[in-house]
Prior knowledge:
Nucleotidyltransferase, domain 5, Rossmann fold, alpha/beta, 18 strands, 9-stranded mixed sheet
Amino acid sequence: MTEQKEAMLMIPKKIRKTLEGLTDEELLKLSPRAVSIPLARTPHPRQAEFLALECEEALYGGAAGGGKTEALLMWLAQGVKVPSYSAIFFRRTYAQLSKSNDSPLTKSHDLYRPLGGTYKGSEHKWVFPSGATIEFGHLQHEMSVQDYTGPAYHRIAFDELTQFSQNQYQFLFSRMRMRKDFPVRMGVRAASNPGGPGHAWVKAWFITPEAEKSILQLGAYQPSPAGLIFWPNPNRAFVPARVADNPSLDIEDYVARLRTQLPPLLRERLLNGDWSAIEDAAIKIDWLRYYDMRGEMLCPLDAHGKVIEPIDCRECERFATVDTAGTSRQKAEERKGKPPSWSVVQIWDYWSKPDYLFLRHVWRDRVAWDGLKAGVRQVLSEWKPRRVLIENAHHGPPLAGELGGFHTELVSPIPHRARGEEGKPGKLERATELLTKLEKGLIFLPKFNNQWLPELESEWLSWTGQDDETSDQV
């Protein structure tokens, strides 16, 4: 049996019947999937469905143990018989690529050596007899994508996609290049569990409401039904995969260990692939409350969307909070490739009787000193707050001196006793009052559309107490 026909074993039966009887050359031209995969690593049925997709991008996984990394490695291997084929596999850090016996690099040796691949350790790259290459890369810092402005790839894979930013993911799309007659269909594939810094954007990009509901209806021991694929658009697919979809695992033992060793929320994310919430999120979605505007009246809504009591905004105490960026430490982090922090102004209306806070407006930008002065003054002039609370750090003190005509107060960033690990400022500690008020339903966001609300909601709901977060400004 030729290598191409061996590979047909990994293709679903309906497609396989169509391909029977074709020559090796015809197979290669017709289907980029008809290349050799070692028989010892024949894909599991769910992996085979993922590998058969011909759309531009797809996400595989959701629950732990579904064979996600192997599926990505197999997908990249579909082109190794084609001269000039070039692909790359990403994890967020190099340690995640290599520092375990179960790492992607270790697994790649099991898959790629039988294909004739030679691993070039100094280049983190597999080279195959045809001349095809598969690289391994990492994007530890936000600006690490600039390391890949030169090379072009036919296929790109992201393992644990929620560890990457959306900017990194979308930037790498620009690195895909191919000739019109090239026999391997180009594209991007990703795998991930729910949770992590990028949970919100990955969910918005790949997880449809129908997918979310369907996943929650399956038990941990129940494999995904054949053909269970969701399409946010015609060129983008989500293929759920679960522990029960991986027959290589001792499923009962694996599930039992997850249930006994993990906290409840994380356990549900990993066992059931539940995207409906974020593991370890400091702010819960059911804490969020909203308000409507009727003329000058603020109308706070309860959890069921009913108006509690109208409040005249002109009788509220309006104040602004200002958080400036620009410390020398942040500049050093930026030079390492991390994005600079935001300068943020928020406008609040406070109604003291029930202790309500209404967030009226948010301005934020990554600006130098002149842009900061102009931006803050413009917001304050428009909203006319009675008090302006400025964090006594970064550019805060000189900014207060520039805001003549406004009642400014410098606010201590954080007392020593509330500092975080190793004496560093702890943003989770700073946000204690915010979290308490949110949990009690005392903070209200605008229900109507505006430019800043979706981003703020996403950041709040994905915040785990780490640094460089909008929640610190409150």
